[in-house]
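Memo to structure team: turn this sequence into structure tokens by end of day. - J.P.
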Amino acid sequence: MSPDIQTLISYSEHQDLLTALAHGQTQQALALIEARLPAAALTGLGRLWSRVKPGKTPVAPLFLRVLREGLVGNAIPELALPLQAEYTADVAELGRAIRVLEYSNAAPSVLAPLAAALRDWLKAGAAHIQRNAGDYPRNGINGKIWMDGAVLQAWAGELGRYYARQHDAANEHRAWHACGQLTMAIMAHYHHMVGPVMISMGQVLEKLNRPAEAAAHYRAVVADFTVLLDDLEEVTQAAGAAAPDEFATDYLALTSLRDAYAGLQRTEAGDEASLRALRSRLDQALAHWPQETGGFQA
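Reply from structure team:
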């Protein structure tokens, strides 16, 4: 088993189940699922879980139901996330299972329906977080809303990368759209979080032959992030060397800026000389970045 899959499984509450899937042991995985599900779930009455008292259900019960139906070849049920309760464990466990199944290739026919179920959960979750974010960061935000949104944001990005590997640009766009909604709802003031999502949105729009929309995403990054380059140049010139540690997260934002410049050169007939000049400034600034700061290299 690869180290990254081992690490992924280590975060799961169902490590034995995911380990079985990683080794292609689908029947063993089914046995583990059925040992954990309440009888109602096995007779098609999974919605009754919402009435079971806390502590009486397994961890991530919706995930177990969805995975079981997929592994036995049934249609994936449309089970709504309990957005007013605890639901991110179901999202995370389903995301892990998809990655593990992709790795093992043990049940290739189930990947698409499982990914579609995760896509729909993320869409619903993103809308819920947007409704309840309260114009953050201008106003305060409920801690659970922020934490739930952060989990959903991470898995929306993972789903976007999964669809990219599957060469499914339409669903890749849906996943990155949800990721963008979540990012802007709870992380809009974090350039290093916003930048990579904006770039991914632009890139998938290019795949969909929508260059004008892609360019708009790249232009937004250039407009909002160039000030970071100005600040970094001022600091490095004053220090005469590398940027201080406080600029570590800006490295990710500035690599997004570099990707935005490249995207504009692909999608928009603009001022080539101006873009080249900006790219040259950026490359020089990133060249000052010390490798020990997060291990990045320009």
